[in-house]
Amino acid sequence: MRSAKLGPNQAFDLILSPVVTEKSTRATEHNQVVFKVPLDATKPQIKAAVEQLFRVKVEAVNTLRVAGKVKRFRGRLGVRSDVKKAVVTLGKGQTIDVTTGI
């Protein structure tokens, strides 16, 4: 597999935000970090963006799509947007502190 080449601003466009939940916090014990990414992002692009932004070695990237829920707000139906999450497994001894900025 070839590594994806990203421009200087493309890496910032690929990593939208970290996902900070109880489950994603537990994943940090296994050297994993969860990020929200665009729906059209690929695994090689995500790997290259994380390595470029955080200066870490990425072992693997797993992705999942979460379908938006139908919710009611003041009696009206609305639909939340679909999101894509990337679970990034880091190399041994590598860490990312998602509580601080880049």
Sum this structure up briefly.
The chain has 102 residues and is of the alpha+beta class. The protein is 23% helix and 32% strand.
Task: Draw up the topology in text.
Layout: H1 10-14, E1 17-18, H2 22-27, E2 32-37, H3 43-54, E3 58-66, E4 70-73, E5 76-79, E6 83-90
Antiparallel strand pairs: 1-2, 2-6, 3-6, 4-5
Query: In terms of per-residue confidence, which ranges show pLDDT below 50 for 5 or more consecutive residues?
Result: none
Helix vs. strand class:
alpha+beta
Instruction: Give the percentage of residues in beta strands.
Output: 25-35%
- Major sheet size, sense and barrel closure: 4 strands, antiparallel
Q: Termini, distance in Å?
A: 28 Å
Task: Supply the CATH class.
Answer: Alpha Beta
Query: Can you count the helices?
Result: 3
User: How are the strands of the biggest sheet laid out side by side?
Assistant: 1-2-6-3
Choose one word for the global shape. Answer: globular
Order of H and E elements: HEHEHEEEE
CATH superfamily: RRM (RNA recognition motif) domain
Oligomeric form: single chain
CATH architecture designation:
2-Layer Sandwich
Please state the CA-atom Rg, rounded to the nearest Å. Answer: 15 Å
Structural domain count: 1
The CATH topology comes to: Alpha-Beta Plaits
Helix content: 10-25%
The averaged pLDDT comes out at 90
How many β-strand runs?
6
Descriptive labels:
alpha+beta; Alpha-Beta Plaits; 3 helices; globular
